[in-house]
UniProtKB/TrEMBL annotation:
DUF1722 domain: residues covered: 192-309
Name under which the protein is recorded: Protein YbgA
Organism: Enterobacter bugandensis
Pfam families for the chain: 2-thiour_desulf, DUF1722
InterPro entries registered for this protein in UniProt: 2-thiour_desulf (IPR007553), DUF1722 (IPR013560), UCP037004 (IPR017087)
């Protein structure tokens, strides 16, 4: 891939002073590490509907009939729900080329989960809301990798998000260059081990679907269905058990090339990973070393070994 993935992002996370209090929530990982590998398309939904900065704080209000509305905390009668809905309805259909979206946690417009709800009298309720903009984003683009800044501090969720971003970008590029059956089959073949590491049942289900590709006259319709299945599987973080199964499967490709000492070393590294004594990077690095020494045509195509730029160092933190 020669082009960079494009990420939507809440404007405040880039360091822009667009928050209600005139500040920002610049996220170091996004701007200092990920930024060199992606391009951003920032947006502040609240400013996009014409609100200034600084501005009075907004809240999610649950009305007596169960409707969620966005109102100002100091003036609960001022309802901007429709303005936000109109903006989201106009903006979101135009961003289908994105490979992911990072939203601001706890925001009444951008929060992905656990946003504070209030009743019409201003009483605090549970943290179980979703920001109005992000709720529409998730509904409109259900396949899109979406995470909020707080959750990206978790190494597993961070790695999973970035992995999905680069997978979707490659798939989008495939479509942009013109879909062919061969290109779709080659893409799926490259992702087999990666899918197996994420969800074994999903891997088994998507296989027959891809095998039916010859029955589809409309390749774009197949693409849309495949994209949803692929991203659903990848959204489930790869488990230690599934990684171990994949690593042992790869190990089998070298049984005739490695001597007794090398086989024992590889076996021990995989077992130490399985037991939580080593990070996933350890067995993968050793396998990549043997793959360079004993090339295998199939393994060399597998995206599992390099699902995103190594320089991000994400596997160092994933145990």
């Amino acid at each position: 891939m020669t082009t960079k993935p494009v990420l939507g992002i809440s404007g405040c996370l880039t360091g822009s002073a667009v928050r209600f209090d005139g500040g920002h929530k610049r996220m170091g990982f996004i701007m200092d590490e990920l930024a060199q590998w992606v391009n951003f398309r920032p947006v502040c939904p609240e400013m996009a509907i014409g609100l200034p900065t600084p501005r009075p704080a907004l809240r999610l209000i649950v009305t007596t009939d169960g409707e969620t509305q966005m109102r100002f905390s100091h003036a609960p009668h001022e309802d901007v729900t429709q303005k936000m809905a109109d903006f989201a309805a106009d903006y979101l259909p135009k961003i289908g080329d994105l490979a992911g979206f990072v939203v601001c946690a706890k925001s009444p417009s951008c929060g992905m989960e656990r946003v504070r709800l209030y009743d019409e009298n201003g009483n605090r309720g549970r943290k179980e809301g979703v920001g109005l903009f992000t709720a529409t984003l998730l509904e409109t683009l259900p396949w899109l990798p979406v995470e909020e800044d707080g959750r990206l501090h978790d190494p597993v969720l961070r790695e999973n998000f970035v992995e999905r971003v680069f997978a979707l970008h490659e798939l989008n590029t495939l479509r942009k260059n013109g879909l062919t059956r061969r290109a779709l089959l080659d893409f799926h073949s490259r992702y087999k081990l990666q899918l197996l590491a994420h969800h074994q049942a999903g891997y088994r289900e998507i296989g027959p679907f891809v095998a039916s590709l010859h029955e589809w006259e409309d390749l774009d319709a197949f693409f849309v269905a495949y994209r949803e299945k692929l991203m659903t599987i990848l959204k489930k973080p790869a488990s230690r058990k599934n990684h171990t199964n994949v690593l042992m499967h790869i190990q089998g490709y070298f049984r005739n090339q490695l001597n007794t000492r090398q086989r024992g070393e590889l076996r021990d590294v995989i077992l130490h990973y399985r037991n939580g004594q080593l990070p996933i990077l350890a067995p993968i690095t050793l396998l990549k070393h043997y793959l360079a020494e004993y090339p295998d045509r199939y393994l060399m195509t597998q995206n599992y070994f390099d699902p995103y730029p190594d320089d991000l160092g994400l596997r160092l933190a994933v145990k």
